[in-house]
Amino acid sequence: SRWDQYRASFGKAINAYLDTIQQGTPPPVPGLAGLQELQFEAALKRSIAEQRPVVVAEEFPI
């Protein structure tokens, strides 16, 4: 299936998350980086839908 190519990657991400919880260490990717990625994706979708440039910091502030 389409998801087979992602299986190993998702497994590594889940294991890294569980290690973080069990060992009490910071995650390999900070939560803020994940939030910024979601902001970027939302801005990209809006830019395509509205056919205009979207400034992430202005339209999707943290």
Describe the structure.
With 62 residues, the protein is mainly α. It has one domain. The protein has helices at 7-23, 31-50, 56-59. The model has no long low-confidence stretch (mean pLDDT 88).
Shape type: flat
> What fraction of residues sit in β-strands?
under 5%
Task: Output the structural class.
Answer: mainly alpha
Rg estimate, integer Å: 16 Å
What portion of residues is helical? 55-70%
The span between the termini is: 36 Å
The largest sheet, given as strand count, sense and whether it forms a barrel, is:
none
* Strand segment count: 0
Give the integer mean of the pLDDT values.
88
**How many separate helices?**
3
User: What string gives the helices and strands in order?
Assistant: HHH
- Uncertain runs: none
Total domains: 1
